[in-house]
Design goal:
Largest sheet: 6 strands, antiparallel
Helix content: 25-40%
CATH topology of the largest domain: Heat Shock Protein 90
Strand order of the largest sheet: 12-11-16-15-14-13
Shape: elongated
Number of domains: 5
CATH architecture of the largest domain: 2-Layer Sandwich
CATH superfamily of the largest domain: Histidine kinase-like ATPase, C-terminal domain
Distance between the termini: 117 Å
Length: 768
């Protein structure tokens, strides 16, 4: 900045005050002269003239003094500019508002353009809380006119000096790396660890060497000092990443209650260099990384974990991938000293198996550059348990949702198919509307089958368990399975001659086999062979596989093997989820395997899948062996042509909260000759039964209702009317009854959706 420009822009802070004084005196002089014109001649008029002349003379003298002081201040300021312009130390001049009115070349080079900016804002980039430091200096300089303070910051150490005595102006001098007692340190000593402490032991500043030796940014000296209290000149032991290390402590007063410590190591300075032999011999996986993620070195254990012989200077992203957060961002923050003690979970990019590692970073310095040491811990089991928990929570939530949706749909389907049955009673096959009604009925039944699959997945469908020999069950199903697979696919069965019996629902297990065979067929569009194998399997030890634990014992195993395209490894854990399918739109609902999963689990069995891309898949089912001898299947299991229910008589108390279902059921029972009393809630039903004059022969009630449920109100009603027959209906399975409670006597269960004939036949069987 040139001298002339600096002088022209500078205006002393005291100038406005002097100018206001001149203005006031001139005003008083003019007031006196004005009054002289208004007053008559006399002594008062002469006195006012004298006063006005005195004020005018005083104003002229003050203005002349102001002019002289302004010229002197300009000369002084110009001398400061000439003296400071080429000084290598940053120098600033400020006005009364602490705004910079002059900055020499060194200050501009160090702090950038500063003129017409508050000095605190200029210094804040290098000196934290510069306003506080300046305030302390002004208080200290009131008496002597000068003050200085040493400041340690992340940018280095500074000595800030203040000089007054130039009117309202101030001269500020900023000397980098100056400090009492340490300003004459040699170049070698500057490389020693240096810390600045406050009054309470807080660490205000650490140079790069101190952060490297102590391994982190320390908040208090007690955090790293093993043998307090701190004694100047004594040898103390400090906690470092390499263990406890001794240093001789040199102390110097830095002013304002601060101390500067220099830690002089007892061992040679080169002892902190990395011990590559020890690095390789440690039994913990270790990686030495550059700040950009380049692997500088990996010990033998880390190479085995990464499944490589050597890293050859590759990037860490070549060996592992993040689970959400960018690895490069994480390493950059760690190299800058942030988040060093927060570990991250990463997945290794190994092709043979999935491995998760927990990585913790520590920062070290080598030749003045920040490097990172990564400690790896195998966290595969932890992440597997976490994934199993999340998956089980998800499947449980989906199962609850599916069961609730299925219950509501069953109510709707009961009303649709029931009213369709009522319409079919009034139309014969020659009626033009008969075909439309049959289509409605058939599609309602298809929808009921789909809802049944949802209930099967949520394990809430009604089972009719019996003792089964899987060889007989599969043999009876062979003809149907051959029709399902078509001509291009060959179906082969292989049985173990000593296969144990199991206990399960024949109809549901047939559905399991059909779903698995259809999936196997779809996996081989060009044709091939499907093999169904049964075998006796004895487990002597618990079998842990996937997310299941199979207890020791005897099992009947069934394998369904295809030679299809196979299932990718990343999709194997999703195949049993509902609505997940790899088929195109219209080719599948995504409920087949989820239905299989639900039926097998509800039967008490297990299902596992193995697959190899291009070679095919194998589904293995394990069912617990049942010791009881096989029973002949009940005669009613084979569907016989249904006969129309006979006309009945009796009084039916129908309790159903869904109005459409209640309307259909009431009409159906009345058509068969029964007297029907309707109730929308359990409370209404009990109010009706409170009248002893009301005769009721049978209760037909929903199980799940708002307020009191079906079994509860029935038990209360049976206290006054023992022996009354009961028919429970529900869109859920029979297991909706509370566990541990006694079974309601003389009761049967009818699942929704039910047809007109199913309802009336069930009521008739109960009454007769």
């Amino acid at each position: 900045m040139a001298e002339g420009s600096a002088t022209a822009r500078w205006r002393p802070a005291w100038a406005p005050g002097y100018m206001r004084g001149v203005a006031v005196m001139l005003g008083l002089a003019l007031a006196c002269f004005g009054l002289v014109l208004l007053l008559p001649l006399g002594a008062g008029r002469i006195a006012l003239l004298a006063a006005g002349a005195a004020f005018a003379t005083l104003a002229a003298l003050v203005a002349l003094g102001l002019l002289r002081r302004r010229r002197r201040a300009a000369r002084d300021f110009a001398a400061i500019v000439r003296f400071s312009q080429d000084v290598p130390t940053p120098i600033f001049a400020t006005d009364a508002d602490e705004t910079v009115i002059f900055a020499n070349a060194a200050a501009c080079d160090r702090f950038g353009e500063a003129e017409q900016r508050p000095l605190a804002a200029v210094l804040n980039a290098s000196i934290a809380s510069a306003e506080g430091v300046m305030h302390r200096l002004k208080l200290a300089a009131r008496d002597s006119g000068t003050a200085r303070e040493d400041v340690a910051t992340h940018a280095g150490r500074f000595r800030l000096s203040l000089h007054l005595g130039f009117g309202a102006r101030a001269i500020w001098r900023v000397d980098p790396r100056a400090g009492p007692g340490l300003s004459e340190s040699s170049e070698a000593e500057e490389e020693l660890p240096l810390l600045t402490l406050g009054r309470s032991g807080a660490v205000l500043y650490m140079n790069g060497r101190a952060r490297a030796v102590l391994g982190r940014r320390v908040k208090r000296i007690e955090d790293v000092l093993e043998d307090p209290p701190l004694t100047p000149g004594a040898v103390h032991r400090f906690v470092t990443p390499d263990g406890h290390r001794g240093f001789r402590v040199r102390c110097a007063d830095a002013g304002i209650g601060r101390q500067e410590l220099v830690l002089q190591p007892l061992e040679p300075a080169g002892a902190a260099a990395p011990d590559t032999a020890g690095f390789d011999a440690l039994p913990v996986p270790l990686l030495r990384l550059a700040a950009d993620g380049t692997v500088l070195r990996a010990n033998a254990v880390a190479c085995r974990l990464l499944a490589v012989e050597r890293t050859d200077g590759g990037s860490i992203t070549d060996y592992m991938e993040g689970l959400g957060r960018s690895i490069t961002d994480w390493l950059s923050e760690a190299a800058a000293g942030r988040g060093l003690h927060r570990s991250e979970f990463l997945r290794l990019t190994r092709a043979d198996r999935e491995i998760f590692v927990q990585v913790t970073l520590n920062r070290v310095f080598s030749n003045g550059h920040a490097e990172l040491v990564a400690v790896l811990n195998d966290a595969t089991e932890l992440k597997t348990l976490e994934a199993q928990f999340v998956q089980s929570q998800k499947m449980q939530a989906i199962g609850q949702l599916a069961g609730g949706v299925a219950h509501d749909f069953n109510n709707l389907l009961t009303a649709i198919s029931g009213h369709c049955d009522l319409l079919l009673l009034r139309h014969d096959q020659g009626d033009p509307d008969y075909g439309d009604l049959v289509q409605i009925n058939q599609n309602a039944n298809r929808a009921a089958a789909l809802v049944g699959q949802l209930l099967a997945f949520s394990r809430k469908q009604t089972l009719r368990p019996e003792v089964l020999d899987l060889r007989d069950t599969l043999s009876d199903l062979t003809h149907l399975l051959n029709r399902l697979v078509g001509e291009k696919v060959q179906l082969t069965l292989s049985h173990d001659p000593v296969l144990p019996t199991i206990r399960g629902d024949r109809r549901q297990l047939e559905q399991v086999m059909m779903n698995l065979v259809v999936n196997a067929r779809d996996a081989m569009p060009e044709g091939g062979e499907i093999t169904i194998e049964t075998e006796r399997r004895t487990l002597l030890d618990p079998l842990k596989r996937d997310r299941a634990l199979v207890e020791p014992g005897e099992y009947a195993a069934v394998k369904v093997i295809d030679r299809g395209a196979g299932i990718p490894q990343d999709k194997l854990q999703k195949v049993f989820e509902p609505f997940y399918t790899t088929k195109r739109t219209g080719e599948g609902t995504g409920l087949g395997l989820s239905t299989v999963y639900g039926i097998v689990k509800q039967t008490g069995g297990f299902i596992f899948v193995d697959s190899v891309i291009g070679q095919g898949s194998c589904f293995t089912l394990l069912f617990p062996a049942h010791d009881a001898p096989a029973e002949l299947p009940p005669a009613q299991h084979r569907e016989a042509p249904r006969k129309r229910a006979q006309q009945g008589n009796g009084v039916v108390l129908l309790v159903e909260d869904e109005a459409p279902v209640r309307a259909f059921a009431a009409r159906a029972l009345r058509l068969r000759g029964y007297t029907v009393i309707e109730a929308g809630t359990a409370e209404d039903a009990l109010d009706t039964l409170a009248d002893d004059m009301v005769r009721v022969d049978i209760f037909v009630t929903d199980v799940v209702m708002p307020g009191m449920d079906g079994p509860t109100w029935v038990r209360k009603a049976l206290e006054a009317r023992p022996g009354t027959r009961v028919v429970f209906v529900s869109g859920y399975a029979e297991d909706v009854f509370a566990e541990g409670e006694d079974e309601v006597p003389n009761s049967v269960f009818l699942p929704k959706p039910f047809s007109l004939n199913q309802l009336t036949e069930t009521v008739q069987r109960q009454l007769h």
